[in-house]
Design a protein that fits this description.
CATH architecture: Orthogonal Bundle
Number of helices: 4
Order of helices and strands: HHEEHH
Number of strands: 2
Helix content: 40-55%
Number of domains: 1
Shape: flat
Distance between the termini: 22 Å
Strand content: 5-15%
Length: 103
């Protein structure tokens, strides 16, 4: 599934990036990092290895709110890219389906 993300207007992205920058300074975000758990793979990782991820990406209309921002390991963040949670699940299902048909 090759999806070319649509580009939200640049003002939206700039505004939401600034909000994310402010959220990084909050106790809420420090608590998220202190837990040391990736939202997607659930692995326990060092806080320095966690990144801030928008569940619904900014380029897809997401916002920088506590409900849309999660701590994420760098590996999961790289794999997720601009995908939404549903698209990630569909990609995994397709990958699993291809693995079973190639046996």
């Amino acid at each position: 599934m090759d999806y070319i993300p649509f580009e939200k207007d640049k003002q939206h992205i700039a505004r939401e990036k600034e909000k994310a920058k402010q959220l990084r300074k909050t106790q809420w975000w420090r608590n998220q990092l202190a837990a040391g758990r990736c939202h997607y793979c659930q692995r326990q990782v060092d806080a320095a290895e966690l990144t801030m991820d928008h569940v619904v990406p900014l380029a897809r209309g997401g916002k920088s709110t506590k409900g849309n921002i999660v701590p994420c390991c760098k590996q999961c963040n790289s794999e997720k890219k601009y995908l939404t949670p549903v698209e990630i699940l569909m990609k995994k299902l397709n990958d699993d389906k291809q693995d079973t048909t190639s046996d």
